[in-house]
Amino acid sequence: MANENTNSLADMHGVFARIPVLFRERMCEQCNWSMPTFYRKMREVNDWDKDSSVTSTLSNAEKTMMKMVAIEVKEWLQNSLIQLIEA
Asked: Which domain of life, per UniProt (predicted)?
């Protein structure tokens, strides 16, 4: 059970609110991006190729890193929630 001296709702909300920040920070660290580069890479359309189709904004290596970071963030979330629930 949660400690009676803490606000469990605020603690839980804080964990969930941290997820997008953690994901962005880890992607920037792992891919050596600045924050503006992260948001630029998030755009759906980066460029048009010669036959007028959309090209991807992410390389295959960046896509792989994104999956690895997602797993890392998921594990962080699981551990954080377990700590809150068992506190």
From this structure: Bacteria
Q: In the chain, what is the straight-line distance between the N-terminal and C-terminal CA atoms, in Å?
A: 6
**In which residue ranges of the chain is pLDDT below 70?**
1-4, 44-55
Q: Which two tokens stand for residue 16?
A: 């969930």
Length of the chain: 87
What Cα–Cα distance (Å) separates residue 49 from each residue in 17, 46, 52, 57?
37, 10, 5, 12
Instruction: Find the helix packing angle between 35-42 and 8-31, rounded to 10°.
Output: 90
The confidence score (pLDDT) of residue 6 equals 80
Q: Are 41 and 30 in contact (CB under 8 A)?
A: no
- pTM listed for this prediction: 0.80
Rg value, the chain, Cα: 18
